[in-house]
Amino acid sequence: MLHLDGAYGEGGGQLVRTSLSLAVLLGEPVRITDIRAGRAKPGLRPQHLTGVKALAHISGAEVEGAALGSRELTFKPRIVKGGDYFFDVAEKTGSAGSVTLVAQALLPPLLAARKPTSLTIRGGTHVAWSPPAHYLMHVFLPALAAMGGLISLTLTRWGWYPRGGGEIRLTVPPVARFAPQRWLTPPDLADFQALSAASRVPYHVIQRQATRLQERLGSSLPVAREEAVSLDPGSFVFLWGPLAGFSALGARGKPAEQVADEAVEEFLGFQTSRAALDRHLADQIVLYLARAAGTSVLVTEEITSHLITNLWVIEQFLGPTFQVQGNLGERGEITCQGRG
Questions:
Q1: Does 281 carry a binding-site annotation?
Q2: Which listed site, 18, 71, 187, 207, has its alpha carbon 20 to 30 Å from 257?
Q3: Are strands 295-300 and 152-157 parallel, antiparallel or unpaired?
Q4: Is 283 annotated for ligand binding?
Q5: Can 306 be counted among the known catalytic residues?
Q6: Residue 153: which of 219, 94, 106 has the closest Cα?
Q7: Considering 48, 126, 138, 306, which one is annotated as catalytic?
Q8: Within 13 Å, how many C-alpha atoms sit on residue 109's CB side?
Q9: Could you tell me which residues come within 8 angstroms of residue 99 by beta carbon, excluding any fewer than 6 positions away?
Q10: Partners of 333 in beta bridges
């Protein structure tokens, strides 16, 4: 059985998600210790636990340590089964745990299942410290589609902090083989568009966010406006183009203009880097590149500790797979020898 140190590198929930996702995909048992040891609240949190239980459910796994706060986990998967699945991040805690993080753990093995999957996940769709649902729709899934993974996602209800209650639905057809990629060229500003959205706040919040985006990036920037349906109030700005997306969330007392500015500043930093992928997509897509049939190369705006940790986890299962050119915190190039 493979034993992984849950405190390695970045030492967060992604290490758990990637480890278990690969364990299910490859049918390999794994034991993880010191889970999120360096965090203020160590051990499994609600969205991590939902991911563990969801992966166990789709693979019929035997699991030890699947409990809130658990710092050790033993996971022995069997066979992945496609079908119809529903998972609720807030089932026991009523939290706005991230639906997208759970989805990202489930997708690699479900794409390898023998039959298609319909997947519904309920919880937080637009919450801090996780990719918003729109990032999956407009950045991650199009990148995966270029590799052959044609997943559809529908946002049926938005879910903000604190109660969540949002919902996404995904259709996941099996993929026989992923195509390798060369993602080297930075996108142009003309390739980007934006969304200004909010729930249960005055409409002028949406307008002010949109106006600020165009003040900063030009009146030609397409900006959609949406009054979102949700349980709680919230606001959101999203700016996206090929292989890159930048978002910001509103908060009580936070001016609408500041929300827009945060997304714009992230975009401008990306633009200055002359990279092809934003830092988050690089982190999320490398597992699929490792399963592609051939060599892939990508240029990311930043080599992050998240990325380095993810590469380490993948190589614990697959062996030497990646070459990294660049320093932590700087623009870099990743070469991947796919094992597909």
A1: yes
A2: 187
A3: unpaired
A4: yes
A5: yes
A6: 106
A7: 306
A8: 33
A9: 89, 121, 122, 123, 124, 125, 133, 159, 166, 167, 168
A10: 299, 325
